[in-house]
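Changelog-adjacent note: as of this version, every example in the card shows the full chain rather than a window. The one below runs 160 residues end to end.
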Amino acid sequence: DFSVLQLDAHRDMRHSFQGSRYSHACIAKRIIELTSLTQVGIRSLSKDEAGKGYKNLKTFFMKDMIDNDNWISEAIDSLPSDKVYVTIDMDALDPSIMPSVGTPEPGGMGWYETLVLFKRLSQKKEVIGFDVVELSPMPGNVSPDFLTAKLIYKFLSYIF
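Full-length structure tokens:
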């Protein structure tokens, strides 16, 4: 039994996308069919994804996180299991520090708040695994590549 924490700019709650139920735009919808999901950093969604009352889902929209000093604690507390899998879409971060993604969205998470989330999560829950997606390297700009590597390194140091 485990919960999932998703850092993402997009809700990824479509029933299907381009004929596939397993598209990148549908992954969160598939997760809540199996277990509980907490999303943080969301700032873009389709009309179909805007529905409320999804079972097994808690969403922290970026526009609300900005004015809520307690969102990190609330997000961690919303994970019902002591074991957590984390999925990190790099577009959760603001494009000013992470422009190398396929679908950048303005107004994203910052470096330090992301590290604080990972540190507190690792202190309160057992992180059983994580993945990192959507780094799309840009020729001539290696900073986002290094940021991604450093984020992985930091998260691993908190876990272990």
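Structural remarks: The chain has one domain: 3-159.
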